[in-house]
Every structure is written in structure tokens, then in C-alpha cells.
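F.,

This is the one I mentioned.
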């Protein structure tokens, strides 16, 4: 009787095992068929475009990362040129992959800080004791005497993934050897002092001030601010007045045919030395500036 029960149990177990094996094989076959039927074909051009990108996922292109941008630019070649860190070289490589003709391309965009006032250059300094953040400080009218100067709390520094910004005596300074042009710093500045501008060469000229105050009031607050004297506009048409401060026309600067003599004259004659060079190899604001010295 016991032997019969054992034999019966063995037969039932064997039958159950075979049944499970068959069911498992059937499900595996179904999944395999479903995988083949439902799989999404990846455009090989997307992989080729991805290979040309820097792979730093900085978001400067307006997409979540390099992978998202690669998909978008393959779908719409008009988006070529959105990769700021890659610049013209990457744009040309993408154009080759997509067999798309790129016109122009332009100079790569890099940030400039439209302020050169260190704490020691500010003749009037308000005492802000709130949250150490540019965004928070900017909400208070009394945070700084100059409403158009760098607040120096480092929101741009925190936004930069590449260590390309430091705060020197209350002023944001860009290390162009590390900068990729990702635009994060420009987006982080609540006063809009950091602007992405075309760098037609490693070093460009810019006006490091955006004070809308009168020249008289600017002098009261800062030693190195633009006083709207228009001296630069008399030397070169690459400068123009925007209200009370001067601004560069970067396209005209890039197209100067006089070897930059007019630009140099504008720099030399600027009474507060607010016209400065920025870029790789340019003198950096590593120490407080003094009016009358470049």
C-alpha cells in the first residue's frame, strides 16, 4: 500500500514538473515574440549624433541631456548649433551625419560678467545680513548700494557644473579654460549681469558694467562703473549707448579691420577702465581693481 502511494506521488510530481516546464517554455516563447513585435527601432543616426556630443548633459541646448538632444536634432536638423560646449566643431559633425548644410554657425557663446567691482571698489556698501544668496539678496532694495552690481553670493558658482566660476572679493570671475558655455551661470544671475556673447576669438573686449544710474550717481557708489561719458563711442562705432551705460556690438568688434586700434583707443581713454578684455589668456579679476589702471 505504501509503495503504491509512493509510485502515485512520483507520477503526479513528474506530471506537474512536465506541465510547469511546458508552461514556462510557452511563456518564454510568447515573451520572445512580443519583444520582437513591440521593440522600438533606434535610428542609427541618433547613435552617430550622440557620439559627436560632449556627453556632459549640461542642458545648454534646452533638452534634458545629450541623448534627448540627439533625438531632437535628428528629427529636426534646424536644431543644429544648440550645443554650446561643442561649438562649431560639433555642429559641423552633426551636419555631416545628417547630410545637412550648415550656414554660418557663428562664434561660440561664452559668458561675460557685466561688472568689475570688487567689494573694495564700492565706495558705498549696504550691509545685507539675510540669506547668503544672490536671488534672496536681490529681493531687498537695500542689499547693495548699486542695484546693478554683482551681489557676490555665488548663485552662479553653485549653478556651474565645471568649476569655471569663483567669487573674488565679492565679484564673480569666470575661468574660461574650464568654461563650456553651458549658460547655467547666466540663468542663475538674478540681475542678468552674466550675458552669453559671441567669442570670435579667445579674447574679446566687453564693457563690464550695466549701471543705469547717472554717471554722477555711479561715481558715488563705485570706482570702476560706467559713467556714460561716451568717450568709447567717439573712438569706435563698436560701442553704443544704452541709456546711461555703454555696450559693445560684438559683431562690429569681430569685423574690425583696423587691427583693433580703435578698440584699444577706447580702452585707453575710458576714465574708469570699465572696458576690459575677457577670455582665455585675458587678465582676470583676481585682485581688486583700481580706477585708472587696467
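My design for it:
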Amino acid at each position: 500500500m505504501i509503495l503504491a502511494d509512493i509510485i502515485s506521488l512520483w507520477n503526479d510530481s513528474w506530471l506537474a514538473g512536465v506541465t510547469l516546464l511546458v508552461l514556462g517554455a510557452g511563456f518564454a516563447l510568447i515573451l520572445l515574440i512580443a519583444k520582437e513585435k513591440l521593440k522600438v527601432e533606434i535610428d542609427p543616426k541618433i547613435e552617430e549624433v550622440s557620439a559627436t556630443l560632449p556627453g556632459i548633459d549640461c542642458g545648454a541646448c534646452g533638452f534634458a541631456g545629450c541623448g534627448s538632444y540627439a533625438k531632437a536634432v535628428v528629427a529636426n536638423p534646424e536644431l543644429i548649433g544648440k550645443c554650446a560646449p561643442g561649438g562649431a566643431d560639433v555642429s559641423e559633425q552633426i551636419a555631416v551625419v545628417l547630410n545637412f548644410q550648415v550656414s554660418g554657425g557663428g562664434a561660440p557663446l561664452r559668458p561675460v560678467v557685466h561688472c568689475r567691482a570688487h567689494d573694495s571698489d564700492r565706495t558705498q556698501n549696504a550691509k545685507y545680513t539675510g540669506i547668503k544668496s544672490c536671488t534672496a539678496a536681490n529681493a531687498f532694495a537695500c542689499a547693495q548700494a548699486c542695484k546693478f552690481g554683482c551681489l557676490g553670493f555665488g548663485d552662479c558658482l553653485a549653478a556651474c557644473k565645471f568649476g569655471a566660476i569663483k567669487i573674488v572679493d565679492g565679484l564673480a570671475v569666470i575661468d574660461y579654460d574650464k568654461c563650456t558655455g553651458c549658460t547655467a551661470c547666466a540663468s542663475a544671475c538674478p540681475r542678468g549681469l552674466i550675458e552669453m556673447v559671441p567669442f570670435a576669438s579667445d579674447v574679446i573686449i566687453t564693457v563690464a558694467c550695466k549701471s543705469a544710474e547717472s554717471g554722477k550717481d555711479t561715481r558715488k557708489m563705485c570706482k570702476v562703473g560706467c559713467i556714460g561719458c561716451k568717450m568709447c563711442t567717439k573712438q569706435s562705432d563698436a560701442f553704443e549707448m544704452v541709456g546711461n551705460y555703454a555696450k559693445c556690438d560684438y559683431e562690429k568688434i569681430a569685423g574690425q579691420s583696423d587691427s583693433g586700434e580703435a578698440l584699444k583707443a577706447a580702452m585707453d581713454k575710458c576714465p574708469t577702465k570699465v572696458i576690459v578684455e575677457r577670455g582665455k589668456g585675458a587678465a582676470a579679476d583676481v585682485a581688486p581693481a583700481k580706477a585708472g589702471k587696467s
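DSSP finds eleven helices and eight strands in the chain.

Talk soon.
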